[in-house]
Amino acid sequence: MKASSLSTALPRSLVWLFATASGLSVANVYYAQPLLDALARDFGIRHAAVGSVVTATQTGCALALLLLVPLGDRMDRRRLMAVQLLALAAVLAAVGMAQSAPVLLAGMLGVGLLGTAMTQGLIAYVASAAAPHEQGRVVGAAQGGVFIGLLLARVFAGGVSDLAGWRGVYFSAAVLMLAIALPLWRWLPVLPPAPGRTMSYPRLIVSMLTLLRQEKVLQVRGVLALLMFATFNIFWSALVLPLSAPPYDFSHTVIGAFGLVGVIGALAAARAGQWADRGYGQRTTAAALAMLLLAWWPLSMMGWSLWALVIGIVLLDLGGQALHVTNQSLIFRTRPEARSRLVGLYMLFYALGSGLGAIGTTFTYAHAGWPGVCLLGAAVSLSALLFWWMTRSGMPVSIQQV
């Protein structure tokens, strides 16, 4: 495909391809969440420690963001995507064949490494291919694909696991990665040479520290991402534990189907990028953080009504998606020549938050049950809202617009 023109709008079909590929890539990182009880049983991992499976994946995410994602500012992004995609398919197959807990954890680390490199590489790719006036909208659409992939991962994993076991989930995921390879190779636009192509790899990595030190927007939005994704993992990593036990005894398919509810919120929040394009980033942030906090009220009432759980999931995913899209739209405006490094740094905060959330929630559930999980989630959500309020006055004028 010919080089993308940064002055013309991207074709809708290409935006859909970015969104689909991003969703399929990120789904690999989250397949394990509704399978934690099955993995604990097969590999002899205690419930209080089974969060280590998710933590291993998030460790891989962090390594990818630090070591692989920045390569998009130095290498041909299209070729980089192809290599990473084929490697990801191989690692997914290896997880499906794992016979011991150490091999499983090593495989999960690899899934986090390559799945994250693919996902965030595609987000930086579409941001670079989009015209300036549509960047928020296009990033929002691609990020909508990421959130839907994240949510549907639980539905897919639950359904396939009930039919073919948890190993079938990872074998199927490997096939899906191979299926998307040809469309990506054929239709991804050829971009101008990477701005940092003359920069050595060590210098590229070191330059990330400079970006982190200099960019106030990145610092604030990164901390918000850490707290928001910790909130997400506090909920989703713990949900399978009460729903798979009495009095519910739900199957993996039913538990995974709760992810479908979150798609409503993700689709509604996809417009957040357009609002950021119009200068409403701070208003969107305030509304998103308020919804994250409010969501824990109905979630805490799950024992009385599953409808309350449904309402809480919609609020949680709507707030999280709107905040995430707004964060990225604002960050990408700061250094256009360093988008891969910026998204890598931003998502490092995400990986740290996700890992801490997974460890904290399984430990909390083991000692305080579902009410303890909800208190933990509400406390982290409130911390995010207070942090944003205290730092908003220090933002550049263009970011302070409301």
Explain what you see.
With 402 residues, the protein is mostly helical. It has a single domain, classed as MFS general substrate transporter like domains (Growth Hormone, Chain: A, Up-down Bundle). Helices cover 79% and strands 0% of the residues. It has 14 helices and no strands. Helix 4 (77-96) packs across helix 6, helix 5 crosses helix 13 and helix 8 runs antiparallel to helix 12 (306-332). It is globular, with a radius of gyration of 20 Å. Mean pLDDT is 84; it is low at 1-7 and 397-402.
Number of domains: 1
The average pLDDT value, as a whole number, equals 84
CATH architecture call: Up-down Bundle
CATH superfamily: MFS general substrate transporter like domains
Helix/strand-derived category reads mainly alpha
* Cα shape: globular
Beta-strand proportion: under 5%
Helix percent band: over 70%
End-to-end gap:
39 Å
Give the key terms:
mainly alpha; globular; 14 helices; Growth Hormone, Chain: A; disordered N terminus; 402 residues
Sum this structure up briefly.
With 402 residues, the protein is an all-alpha fold. It contains 14 helices and no strands.
Topology:
Blueprint: H1 12-30, H2 36-43, H3 51-67, H4 77-96, H5 101-129, H6 135-187, H7 201-214, H8 216-243, H9 252-269, H10 272-277, H11 281-300, H12 306-332, H13 339-391, H14 397-400
Helix pairs in contact: 1-5, 1-6, 3-5, 3-13, 4-5, 4-6, 5-6, 5-13, 6-9, 6-12, 8-12, 8-13, 9-12, 11-12, 11-13
